[in-house]
Amino acid sequence: MHELSIAQNIIDIISEQCLKSGHTRIEAVNIRIGRASGIMSDALFFAFDAIKAESIAEGAVLHIEEVPVSGRCNECKSDFIVQEVYILFCPHCGGGSFRMVSGKEMDIIDMEVS
Ligand SMILES: [Zn+2]
How far is CA 82 from CA 29, 79, 87, in A? Predict the structure, then answer.
């Protein structure tokens, strides 16, 4: 259900932008989702396809780019990427003081209209 409201949000935003730019049809939309955002790509694809039919995004194809979780260590200053959806410690020095740099985003990058 979480993904359903996100899909609706995406369609609302791109529909508004599409109409504002004077176009009537959305061909594709590219979005970026962090692996730690809690959003399941599969569920989002499903939700998007299920609700796009009644909108000007009817023929739109959703493209999802998954962004890995990455951080920057406050101790050794190195940047790193982890395979998990969370960071427990810096993989370089084992330090527990770090900042999450990416992984929580949900951005609409761009779209193709006609
Ligand atoms: Zn470190």
Answer: 27, 10, 7
Task: For residue range 30-78, list pLDDT tens digits in order.
Answer: 999 999 999 999 999 999 999 999 899 999 999 999 999 999 999 999 9
For residue 32, the surrounding DSSP H or E stretch is: strand 26-34
Report CA(67)–ligand 1 centroid distance (Å): 21
Q: How far is the CA of 93 from the centre of ligand 1 (A)?
A: 4
Cα 37 to averaged position of ligand 1 atoms, centre (Å):
24
Q: How many domains in the chain?
A: 1
Instruction: Report the CATH number that the domain containing residue 40 is assigned in CATH.
Output: 3.30.2320.50
| pTM for this prediction | 0.86
Residues within 5 Å of ion ligand 1, judged at the Cβ atom: 73, 75-76, 90, 92-93, 95
Residue whose C-alpha is closest to residue 73's, from 50, 96, 106, 105 = 96
Cα(74) to centroid(ligand 1), Å: 7
